[in-house]
Amino acid sequence: MYRFLLTRQWVFVTLLALVLIPVMIELGFWQLHRHQARVAQNALIAKSLDAKPVPVEELTSPDETLPRADYWRRVTATGRFDTGHEVVVRRRTNSDDRIGFHVLTPFVLQDGKVVLVNRGWVPTASDQKAFPKVPPPPSGELTVTGRLMASQTTDASGIKDLKGLPDRQVMLISSEQQAQLLNKEVLGGYIELTHPATDSPEQLPEPDHDSIGNHFAYAIQWWLFTAAVPVGWVFLVRREVRERRERSAAASEERTEAVPA
């Protein structure tokens, strides 16, 4: 009765089921790992934001890649803004999803080193090739506070580092690129400014560290799909067996009726 499982159709169905099961199990674990990574990141952000601010040079130095454990750490820096070498970062959105620029201003420390400061968001000018209107930062020596961030790369951000941009416009916030342009020692990473607070440029909000997304639910969903595959295969086999038995019984009955009395 089960020899039909050796037919081409049923061999294909069985092989498909055998392939789907490990694939969907792996997809479930992939979503679980994404959930765990998001939870770990939220914990890191919360810990960093709650930590007491420290001088930026305690956590980073020129030509150094910022360790992930120090992402979003609150830091202070004392020096002055160098608006003469200020640039804007293209295609950045604010809290209302309006497209504009981030304002990136070098901040010269007391020892002559430079740390990049993202002062916040400004809207684009009517001509996107033109440098936007950017309110100046406070002049003279001051102490700024902000969140320490790693330099941006295409691999990490997905943003292409386009060439041939208008003067003083960049695609990525990169301490290495700015060190070459400034010909100075630039600390690795950059600071997202939180103090002194300004309305313009519009300061960047704290990173989201409350939501965890739907990755865990998606993992459960994939595993439920995995369990459904063998259940569905058994259901189809039993239905096929039942239908074959019914057809066999009907054919036997027809032969019996056809025999002369």
UniProtKB/TrEMBL annotation:
GO cellular component: plasma membrane
Keyword entries, A-Z: Cell membrane, Membrane, Transmembrane, Transmembrane helix
Transmembrane segment boundaries: 12-32, 216-237
Membrane topology: Multi-pass membrane protein
CDD domains noted in UniProt: SURF1 (cd06662)
Cellular localization per UniProt: Cell membrane; Membrane
One Pfam match: SURF1
Major localization listed first in the record, in broad terms: membrane
Top-rank taxon: Bacteria
Keyword Cell membrane: yes
Record-stated family: Belongs to the SURF1 family.
PANTHER family to which the protein is assigned, alphabetical: SURFEIT LOCUS PROTEIN, SURFEIT LOCUS PROTEIN 1
Name of the protein described by the UniProt record: SURF1-like protein
Protein's organism: Streptomyces mesophilus
